[in-house]
Amino acid sequence: MIYKDASKFIHERVEDLIGRMTLQEKVAQLTCANSYGGETVYDTRHGKLKDGIGTISYLNDSLTGDNKKDKETIKGIQKFLVEETRLGIPALFHSEGIAGAQIPGATTFPQSLNLASAWEPALAQKMGEVVKKQLRAYGFKAVHSPLFDLGRDPRFGRIGETYGEDPYLVAQMGVAFVKGVQGDHEIMAAAKHFVGYGNAEGGRGGGEQQVDERRLLDSYCFPFEAAIHEADVKAIMNSYGILNDQAVSTSKWLLTDILRDKLGFNGLVVADYGSITHATLRYRVAEDHKEAGILALKAGLDVEQPGNQCYQHLIKAVESGELEEAYIDNSVRRVLETKFRLGLFENPYDDGDFFYEIKKAENVELSREIAEKSMVLVKNEDNILPLKKSLKVALIGPASDTKTNFFGGYSSVGSASTRSSDFDKSEEDSFLRMLYTGAITDDKESLKSMGIEFDDQPTPEQREIIMNMIRQNLASEDSSKRVYKTNEEFVQMFYPDCKSVKDVLEKELGKEHVLHAKGCNISKPIDRGIEAVKAVVQQADIVIAVLGGKESMIDPEATCGENKDNHNIGLENSQLEMMAEVFKLNKPVISIIVDGRPLPTPLVSEYSKAVLYSWLPAQSGAEAIMNILTGQKNPSGKLPVTIVKEAGQIPMYNSRLPLYVEMNEWAEYIDPTQNKPLYPFGHGLSYTQFEYGDLEHDRSVQVDGELNILFKLSNVGQIAGDEVVQVYIRDRVSSVARPVKQLVGFARISLDINETKKVSFKVNMKQLAFHDLNMNQVVEPGNMEVFIGASSQDIRLKGTFEIIGEKTIVERKAFSSNVTITEL
């Protein structure tokens, strides 16, 4: 058979296989089996998987903590598909990977906002390579990562999963991660969420978005377009929500006209969990699940996930003449082509030694390196840091003696107690629906004995009672399968070397120099907690406050995460009340913010001597924090987002359109203190000082040419350090309004004491392409300004140049500049 012959071209293999498939087998390739414990899929394989399956969701409730058992379950499911179904088509098992492989014991990495704060794409690529090896060694050949959403609203619960606010920075970090995780056709990455998901009105993830097509193409689509053409990303996941009044999951305009025809994507489009059902259950653009499935498939959405609530009806739709089979064939081709390119037919099982991979010391070192390079020191008054070891320290705050707060909601730790059904946003979870149907029919008498009586259907109140009973039973069964009970126990079991800030501080300074009082929980006070804090502060020379929130989709104390959008973008009141009392004691305070969101901290920022954003630094987070505080590592992170002062300022982001004559003016609020952000995009301090000088650049550049920029960077301080240099360009006059500053290049540069390096950038003018009044993508001639600095506001060098020639229509933008660092 041609499709089993690896020597044949992929196109030949695909067409041969499609020609052998029944309609049922084709549709099966467009659906997903949700594991719900893994064994459920395995135990029902003869019925559920008899026609094969496209993908299999094997998320956290599948992972019992017994890795050998879970790996065997994956292998058993795949073995059935390969050896016992008619055509032997293997499934594509998928997991998550933005903070490391979502597997117990796999290396956990700082979350995406950390990576972006490091401004070093090479780190993202190295991380992706580790994630790839660990996923493949477990049996996964697909990963639902990374996010290419722009993070411009701190109310959005998942902003910590983004690479920040700027399209260029997001593209650079995301492309690097995709290159690392996909390798040489080894893993299928899924760039998500196409498109605009993170920027819904009010910060409500998956809500309504109104974005004009020019902004959509020039800003929100740019990172995806870069991933398509720079990293050959194999899959793209649609977003939840409504964009310009269209449900994204059923929008041909978005999923075909823009994604495929305009952006040039020819890979696989997979559904975010339950998003197709939203067309009927939420947005009411489809009459029922069948119509939603037909609309989504015709729009260009190839695979429904995590089940088949809608696509199961495609068979009848073809048989009734409502859908042409050609639509199904087109999507099946993309599924099969992906599987062939991944070598799944030749090697459908795990590839590598998972237990060897997770023991590599260099992986832990990489995680710590990312954590250290991503921490952003935004204030250091009187050079209070680095910390002097002779001091007696009062350690306070809800994150001062905890480990789980260091991990993101999509990390193995953050999602340890999360069920696959928690990821499913279908509203009508097929598994729960099945159990509910069984309960009100087969178990009707049992319900009656419990006082739940009904004739035909339960009342809404009774339905809720029954559903709660089902959920409780599932939770009970689930925990009985797991070798751990809580996230804290999970950390102790799989990451025993993970430390709290208290652990590392006591080791570094000696227990006798550390006085600890938690003071409060994340969002609730502790009885006499503030009194305990005041007592230790009064005895101390200096205070270290470890503050922030909790990212999780299920934790009761969660302040952010999926389905956890939060209108309060600052610290919770319990922490603010504690800190207000601490500041009254007039002791120097160092505040550390541990959170997935860019929390504005006006009170803390004003009265603390130093403020450090650590974001979510993962398993080596405490050591990384301590290395920064003590000066063993020089802080070098830069903000990938603009940090506002309060929610009323949203949105504030660097590449905004001009409002006033002066480019650094943001608003005209009555209160002048609200007219600028708390901290600007790109800001971050060091323990040393850098000087920029000797700028040289082209004075004119052809519309199809490159701008050459050359300058010198010197370390004039007392210790070695890294500086992140940033290059921005401003169009002085254009046919449509353009950003006040457009980030076009950056580089992280290491310098010893008194060392100087020459830095040169080549900026392709196609990086400046935009859609004009006629919606043509063009490069326009005209006068431009170039800015080079340590942040978007801390500009050290300026220049002007002219783009000369005729206005030129370009098919594709340039996605990155080239930088060369030369030692002098």
UniProtKB/TrEMBL annotation:
SMART domains attached to this UniProt entry: Fn3_like (SM01217)
Keyword RNA-binding: no
Keyword hit for GTP-binding: no
Highest rank taxon of the organism: Bacteria
First and last residue of the signal peptide: none
Molecular function terms, GO-annotated: beta-glucosidase activity
One protein family per Pfam: Glyco_hydro_3
Entries under InterPro entries matching the protein: Cellulose_deg_GH3, Fn3-like, GH, Glyco_hydro_3_C, Glyco_hydro_3_C_sf, Glyco_hydro_3_N, Glyco_hydro_3_N_sf, Ig-like_fold
Residue span(s) of domain Fibronectin type III-like: 723-792
Keyword list, A-Z: Hydrolase
GO biological process terms on file: carbohydrate metabolic process
Stated family: Belongs to the glycosyl hydrolase 3 family.
PANTHER family: BETA-GLUCOSIDASE
Name this protein carries in UniProt: Glycoside hydrolase family 3 N-terminal domain-containing protein
Native species: Paenibacillus polymyxa
